[in-house]
Amino acid sequence: MNFPIYWLKADVKEDDRLRYGKGMKFRTQLCEKNPDHAYRQIRPTPLRLEFRGVTLTDFLWTSYSEAIVHKSVVAAFEEAGIAGCEFIPVDLENTMGDQVAGDLYEFRVTGWGGMASAESGVRVLEECPYCKHRVFSGYKDPARLLDLDAWDGSDIFTVWPIPRYILATEAVRDLLVQHHFTGVKAIPIEKLPKVVAGTLTPGNIRDWFDENQARQFEAEIEAAI
């Protein structure tokens, strides 16, 4: 790969991460044959978050690493024509559960970088024959995660099976620097941290993308494995 790719890393204190509000309830679907496998973890939209007077930055982050951005970030990204993301208003509540006003949006990735390349070291370790729940090995060479032939060319994208990592092009890095946005750092992809416990369990592709995208991406994953 002859051009830089970056990871958008949270740059906030752990105590300043936003927590889910009382109205946030996931729906879990278990594998019919193996109840130890959570086939789906369906998250409600929009996000409902509890505001506890945290330090305000342009990029905020939840306890589960969802990126939440101020409307100024939305305006800058839209003006620059950055592709591969969408912005969804979030519901904010105080510690009593009452809704409060806010100009915050969930920064959701829609761009696709395909299945991690075999050269990165990622491979399937376990697979449920019924629900396709998979456990992958961690990457050994993060600089080789992106398969250029599988990437859709978006400025913001993710690679499977690391959907929680927001990846970005140099254009996005430059935009962050230009606007001095706080709460985020653009880290070269080769500096991605080692995988905790050595394995990856990304869950179901439909928990990360809308149905039409998920169907397409699922077919690509199956073809690449």
Extended strand count: 18
Q: Roughly what is the average pLDDT, rounded to an integer? A: 93
* SSE order: EEEEEEEHEEEEEEEEEHEEH
Please report the number of helical segments.
Answer: 3
Describe this structure in words.
- The chain is of the alpha+beta class and 225 residues long.
- The protein has one domain (5-224).
- The protein contains 3 helices and 18 strands.
- The strands form 5 sheets. The protein has a 5-stranded mixed β-sheet. Strands 2-5-9-10 form a 4-stranded mixed β-sheet, with no helix packed on it.
- The longest helix has 14 residues, at 211-224.
- It is globular, with a radius of gyration of 18 Å.
Describe this structure in a few short sentences:
Helices cover 15% and strands 31% of the residues. The protein has 225 residues and is α+β, with helices and mostly antiparallel strands.
Write the layout of secondary structure elements.
Elements: E1 5-10, E2 19-20, E3 27-30, E4 38-42, E5 48-50, E6 59-61, E7 67-70, H1 71-80, E8 85-89, E9 91-93, E10 99-100, E11 104-109, E12 112-115, E13 124-127, E14 134-137, E15 156-160, E16 167-169, H2 170-179, E17 184-188, E18 199-200, H3 211-224
Parallel strand pairs: 5-9, 12-15
Antiparallel strand pairs: 1-16, 1-17, 2-5, 3-4, 6-7, 7-11, 8-11, 9-10, 13-14, 14-18, 15-16
Name a few traits of the molecule.
225 residues; alpha+beta; 5-stranded mixed sheet; 4-stranded mixed sheet; 3 helices; 15% helix
